[in-house]
Design brief:
With 315 residues, the protein is an alpha/beta fold. The chain folds into two domains: 196 residues, Rossmann fold, CATH 3.40.50.170; 94 residues, Methionyl-tRNA Fmet Formyltransferase, Chain A, domain 2 (Roll), CATH 3.10.25. Helix content is 24%, strand content 26%. It contains eight helices and 15 strands. The strands form three sheets. It has a seven-stranded mixed β-sheet, with helices on both faces. Strands 10, 11, 12, 13, 14 and 15 form a six-stranded antiparallel β-sheet that branches. Strands 3-4 form a two-stranded antiparallel ribbon. α4 links the parallel β6 and β7. α1 packs parallel to α6 and α5 runs antiparallel to α7. The protein is elongated, with a radius of gyration of 23 Å.
Length: 315
């Protein structure tokens, strides 16, 4: 089976390595153009490109998927199938029509739930107890094609988006390899999506992470989990932006005061903070230009009084 692989971030790596390990014939890899990354703004290869170069696989990095030279090149390659995993753009119909066995996508949700760019994050932010991976035949819509296979996993109460990402990336590899075997053996049972049950997971922005202390303890804890490691949840402490990396629901009777107020400090746990409904413990934080640290470590060198209100003085 001749394959063109399209993908960009870390999520695509286990599946790509799985194809390489199984000795699939990967004709080329299409990935997003290299961009400046991190604070140094140094241009870095995409994670998928790094793997491709290590294995001497041809790399294509078009600025536009409608570029006629790209489409002509893909036609000349005559792939049996195009596999797309977190590439970052919707494929035009000119590309969808090229492979005789279609274009197959690995998506990190149980479609039609959480179509879009950030299904892992939004599943946690919204407090879902389960999610999974879906393989599907692609069409011109956003994650709307016929389903091939699905596999479900549970989301634990303390799981972060980063942890769920890694689990689903590996699950995606397993499901992709099973999907390809089913396609080769003509065993695929295409299932049309029930569009009445659709939901969406739009791309995250940094503003998603700002904490509204009027929200419930449960929703704030889910936000912190769902934005870890990116973009991170944050509030303001004495006018300075403070990222919050770890929280938990504090199961005691609700305290008095306005949402965001620090009611207590408990050693080996952290600050106890009132929310719109219930209390949370803030356990791990990061101040501007500083490292992640426990609240225990932070207060050894900083005075933060009980009664301080988080979120005030922010801009």
């Amino acid at each position: 089976m001749k394959i063109v692989f399209m993908g960009t971030p870390e999520f695509a790596i286990p599946s790509l390595l799985g194809l390489i390990e199984k000795n699939y014939n990967i004709l080329a890899i299409v990935t997003q153009p290299d961009k400046p990354r991190d604070r140094g703004k140094k241009v870095k290869y995409t994670p998928v490109k790094e793997i491709a170069l290590k294995h001497n696989i041809s790399v294509l990095q078009p600025l536009n998927l409608r570029d006629e030279s790209l489409i002509s090149h893909l036609r000349l390659l005559k792939p049996d199938i195009i596999i797309v995993i977190a590439y970052g753009k919707i494929l035009p119909k000119e590309i969808l029509k090229i492979p005789k066995s279609g274009c197959v996508n690995v998506h990190a949700s149980l479609l039609p739930a959480y179509r879009g760019a950030a299904p892992i994050n939004w599943a946690i932010i919204n407090g879902e107890k389960k999610t999974g991976v879906t393989t599907m035949y692609m069409d011109t819509g956003l994650d709307t094609g016929d389903i091939i296979l699905k596999k479900e996993i549970e989301i634990s109460d303390d799981m972060t988006a980063g942890q769920l990402h890694d689990l689903l990336a590996n699950l995606g590899k397993e499901l992709l390899l099973k999907t390809l075997e089913d396609i080769k053996q003509n065993k695929v049972n295409r299932i049309a999506q029930d569009h009445s049950k659709e939901s969406y997971a739009p791309m995250l922005t940094k503003d998603v992470g700002i904490i509204n202390w009027n929200h419930s303890a449960k929703s704030i804890v889910n936000l912190v989990r769902g934005t870890n490691p990116w973009p991170g949840s944050y509030t303001f402490l004495k006018g300075k932006k403070m990222k919050i990396w770890k929280t938990s629901i504090y199961e005691v009777q609700d305290g008095s005061g306005k949402p965001g107020i620090i009611l207590d400090y408990i050693k080996n746990l952290g600050w106890i903070v009132k929310t719109g409904k219930g209390l949370i413990a803030i356990e791990e934080i990061q101040m501007p230009s500083g490292k992640k640290m426990s609240v225990d470590s932070y207060i050894r060198g900083h005075d933060v009084n009980i009664g301080t209100v988080l979120g005030e003085g922010g801009c």
